[in-house]
Every structure is written in structure tokens, then in C-alpha cells.
Design a protein that fits this description.
The protein is an all-alpha fold. 58% of the residues lie in helices and 1% in strands. The chain has a two-stranded antiparallel sheet with strand order 1-2.
Length: 360
């Protein structure tokens, strides 16, 4: 009897030990609940941990990219604190763009100003944006001169598309199209369907002799393209060209996604910098998911790409909400470590999450 009782006790003890392991289900990474919670987690941490170098005029584009993600978090959650944070940040500049009139980096803040304007309808919020682009339209340079690096296609074009939608002024669309497609003709490789970062990379090869295409640079372009398409009228003569560009780039990016779901800083030569990079990967995830949600990219073909990318990205969100493996500010495929983080990385992650929430 004692032996039977002892055996029963041992069995119960074993079950008590084993049961929690079975009861701890893995979270559904693709459920709206998980995505929203993760967006809040990342957004809250980054708001509480600003990157101080981004307060400098030449780096404020990095924070501007983050606030596109803050606004995406607000639109997804409808939590007033995120809108309040974006308004407070915008008010700190008195709704002005930065000092360099012709530099697209200094136009990036306008995306957040315009998104807040769509809610509040205060003309002051977009007055300086209008003055800036009215001046540029009156004294134009070619796209390849003012938007000479591919990152510029995220910084300025979405501002122009939103400004045209907000004001009904066709001049902003015409200027956008002229500038964008001149830069495209200058920097786009029509064989690889990827953008060179700038002209210094036209003949620059990786250590294994491949063309050099930077992940984040191409992420900027894809994200900028979909943010133009959000506001460009579908009957605009250039609309189909933006759609074709998104399709071409998505097909190229799909082919070079790595097994962990992420992309490497040097797109065609992963061994050049053999580490994941989460800012470019987040932008790719965002743009491709937007393409699926808007019927431009085939869901059956691209949903596995998105799911794999989202899983890979979430492997590098710490328990405190910090996104790891973000390549520092730079202009080329370069070294990145797991401890690197940056505000534009968080912003890109939040944009991706906002589109994943809309998947059906």
C-alpha cells in the first residue's frame, strides 16, 4: 500500500512539473493582439529612450522616421498618448522644417505634420511645408541633383503626396513626379531592380565582385513608394509606374531574403556583412505588407515573405522593447552589432506592425 501511495505521489509530482511546460503556449505572432502589444512595447521604449544625436539638425530625419511610426501606432491603437507625443514633438519645431531648404532629409518631418493636420485642420501645421515646396517649385533643380541619394525618396516624396491631398494643389504632384522619376533614372539598376545608394556605388563591387546595394537604402525607397501610393490619385498618369516599381523591387527583395527572415546590409552579397539588419528588413516588411493589403502584390506569393520577416524581427525585440541589430547612421552596407539600435529602426518596425494588423 505504501509503495502504491508513493508511486501515486511521484506521478502527481511529475505531472505538476510537466504540465506548465505544456500549458505555456507560444504567442501567435500574427494575431492582432500580439502585434498591437508589440507595437506599444517598442514605441513606448523608444519614446522613453530618445537617441540624443538625432536632436542635431543634420540627423533629425532619423527621429522624423520614428514619428511616422508613432503616428502609425496612434492610427492602429487610437491611443491619445501617441498623438500627443507626436504633437509635442512637432510643436518643439513650431511646425517648421529644418534649415537646409533643398535637402530632402530636412523635409521628412512634414510627413508627421501633415498627418496631424489631417486630424486637427490647423493651417499653421503645414504653412512652412507649403512655403518650402513653393520655393523649390519656383526654383527647381533636377531630381538627381536635389535627391541625389536613394534615401531621399522616403524623406520628401511622401510629404509632397500628402501635401497635394491636403491642399488639392496639383503643382505638388507634378513636382513630385518630375523629381522622383529623374532620381529613378539616375540611381535605379534596371537589371537587379534595386537602387544604388548614390552615384559613388555605380562601379563599386563587394569583396566577392557583386554590385553593392544597401538594404536600408532600398528599404527607404520601397517604404517611400508605398507612402506616395497612399495619397497619389489612381488616375494620375504616373500611378502605374509607382505600382510597377513596387512590384519589381518586391520580387527582387523576395529572392534574397535570408533563412532567418531578415536581410543583410549588403543585399547581393550577404557575406560582406554577415549579420541581420532590422531597419531595412522592417521597411521591406512594411512595404510588401502594404502591397498585399492594397491588392498590388499577390498574397499567396508574398504572405510567406511577410510572416518570415515578422518572425525574424520579433526575435530581436528585447523584453524591454528595444529593437536590436539596427545598423547605425551611415551610407552603405556596414558593420552592425546586436546592441545597435536607432529611432528609424523602431519607426520602420511600427510601420510594419501597422500594416500587419490589417492583413486578412
Amino acid at each position: 500500500m505504501k509503495n502504491r501511495m508513493l508511486a501515486l505521489c511521484n506521478l502527481i509530482l511529475a505531472l505538476l512539473i510537466i504540465t506548465p511546460a505544456f500549458s505555456q503556449k507560444k504567442p501567435d505572432l500574427y494575431s492582432k493582439t500580439f502585434i498591437v502589444n508589440q507595437m506599444r512595447h517598442v514605441c513606448d521604449w523608444q519614446l522613453s529612450n530618445p537617441v540624443t544625436i538625432n536632436e542635431k539638425n543634420e540627423n533629425d530625419w532619423a527621429r522624423a522616421a520614428f514619428y511616422t511610426g508613432v503616428m502609425a501606432t496612434y492610427q492602429t491603437t487610437q491611443d491619445q498618448k501617441y498623438l500627443d507625443a507626436a504633437i509635442k514633438w512637432s510643436e518643439s519645431f513650431d511646425w517648421k522644417l529644418a534649415r537646409r531648404l533643398r535637402h530632402a532629409d530636412d523635409h521628412a518631418k512634414g510627413q508627421t505634420y501633415l498627418e496631424i493636420y489631417a486630424i486637427k485642420k490647423d493651417p499653421k501645421m503645414i504653412e512652412d511645408i507649403r512655403n518650402t515646396f513653393d520655393t523649390l517649385i519656383a526654383t527647381p533643380n533636377p531630381g538627381r541633383e536635389d535627391w541625389w541619394w536613394c534615401d531621399a525618396l522616403f524623406m520628401a516624396p511622401p510629404v509632397l503626396a500628402r501635401l497635394a491631398a491636403a491642399t488639392g494643389d496639383q503643382r505638388y504632384i507634378d513636382f513630385l513626379n518630375t523629381m522622383f522619376w529623374d532620381t529613378y533614372d539616375f540611381l535605379y539598376d534596371k537589371e537587379e531592380h534595386l537602387f544604388y545608394r548614390d552615384k559613388s556605388y555605380f562601379d563599386k563591387k563587394t569583396p566577392s565582385g557583386k554590385k553593392t546595394f544597401w538594404a536600408r537604402g532600398n528599404g527607404w525607397v520601397m517604404a517611400g513608394t508605398v507612402r506616395v501610393l497612399q495619397y497619389l490619385p489612381k488616375d494620375n498618369p504616373k500611378y502605374s509606374q509607382y505600382v510597377a516599381l513596387l512590384k519589381e523591387m518586391a520580387a527582387s527583395v523576395k529572392k534574397i531574403q535570408q533563412e532567418d527572415g531578415l536581410w543583410r546590409p549588403s543585399l547581393l552579397d550577404p557575406a560582406e556583412v554577415p549579420h541581420p539588419e532590422t531597419s531595412g528588413s522592417s521597411f521591406f516588411c512594411y512595404a510588401i505588407t502594404w502591397g498585399i493589403n492594397n491588392g498590388i502584390l499577390d498574397k499567396k506569393e508574398y504572405l510567406p515573405v511577410v510572416k518570415k520577416a515578422w518572425q525574424g524581427l520579433n526575435n530581436y525585440v528585447t523584453s524591454e522593447g528595444r529593437l536590436q541589430w539596427v545598423q547605425p547612421i551611415g551610407a552603405a552596407p556596414d558593420k552592425v552589432t546586436i546592441d545597435n539600435y536607432q529611432e528609424y529602426g523602431s519607426g520602420a518596425f511600427l510601420l510594419a506592425g501597422s500594416e500587419l494588423c490589417k492583413l486578412k
